[in-house]
Design goal:
single chain, about 300 residues, alpha/beta, Glutaredoxin, 4-stranded mixed sheet, 15 strands, elongated
Length: about 300
């Protein structure tokens, strides 16, 4: 299976082999690479200070680290090969620096209850072992005994939240690779639940946004470079912000290029400090910038001629 994306800069589709992270200009026969480039939607950009950063045109996310700065490896389960059995590998400490991802369900995700399949290792997650000893993480592929039928905003939010848990584990600097349950063609292997293809493809694409330890953007001048250099609008948002979602939809509906910096506990103070440089005391979300200038929030955006934000 190859996941198809579209390169705006080259005005043509390209394809990702999820098993090895390679991308191709023509749909590949797995194992016959045509060209090796950045995975998924990523392109390399340069700030005004000459510093390289990476931009994903599918999500509007900018980051300083190279995408997929940690090894991603697919595990094809074979009942006759114990070296493909997560439980055996963990109990015998065979790959001590590997973080194992298993297909989870919404109802049991925040528990340490072992179940069938690869969920037999759920007790080794953060809810059973804590963040400094956990060696597995679950990514939900369904709920109520059924796979997700399509990638709705709610399903996407569930998967995004669970990948944040994965990233938090990687930030402990205990792992050098992430292993996921793979089909023979590199896609997401599913047995108990059968989610839709767009859900499986989204999970695979999210794998290639994971970062190795120490790659978090944590410098004010780096954030300011993004605000100054990115064309279109830069939005500082936070999870669950309805005005942020409305602003995103308004900008996208009007073909305004959007770069999103989502705040979390690790970068909130930095993003607050940067905002104060442009608008002292401004605390609400979203925080919108264009051409290196603060333009306000969602209510302010509605008053602007959006064509002026397209450069």
């Amino acid at each position: 299976m190859a996941v198809e994306f579209f390169s705006k800069s080259e005005n043509q589709p390209f394809f990702l082999n999820p098993y090895n992270g390679m991308t191709y200009w023509s749909k590949p026969e797995i194992g016959k690479p045509l060209i090796t480039e950045l995975p998924n939607c990523w392109s390399q950009q340069k700030s005004s200070k000459g510093k390289l950063y990476y931009y994903c045109d599918n999500t509007g996310v900018s980051q300083w680290n190279l995408p997929t700065s940690i090894k991603i490896r697919g595990n094809v389960y074979n009942s006759r090969d114990k070296n493909t059995d997560y439980k055996y590998l963990i109990q015998n400490n065979i790959n001590p620096k590997t973080l194992y991802l298993f297909n989870d369900n919404v109802e049991h995700h925040k528990t340490a209850i072992s179940q069938s399949g690869n969920a037999a290792v759920r007790n080794y997650n953060i809810y059973g072992k804590g963040i400094n000893k956990a060696v597995v993480a679950g990514i939900s592929t369904g709920e109520k005994q059924k796979g997700f039928s399509r990638l709705t905003p709610r399903v996407k939010s569930i998967i995004d939240d669970e990948f944040r848990e994965v990233q938090n584990l990687l930030d402990t600097d205990r792992f050098d690779e992430v292993v996921y349950s793979s089909s023979k063609d590199g896609g997401l292997a599913t047995q108990i639940f059968t989610p839709s293809d767009d859900v499986k493809d989204y999970i695979i694409a999210k794998l290639y946004t994971l970062k190795g330890p120490g790659s978090q953007v944590d410098f004010k001048d780096d954030v300011q470079d993004i605000i100054k250099d990115n064309p279109g609008v830069v939005m500082i948002s936070k999870k669950g912000c309805s005005s942020c979602m409305k602003a995103k939809k308004l900008l996208e509906d009007n073909s305004v290029k959007l770069t999103i910096l989502e705040t979390d506990d690790q970068v909130k103070e930095i993003l607050d400090d940067v905002t104060n440089l442009y608008k002292p005391g401004y605390k609400t979300y979203p925080r919108l910038f264009h051409d290196g200038k603060f333009i306000g929030g969602y209510d302010d955006l509605k008053k602007i001629n959006l064509d002026t934000l397209k450069n």
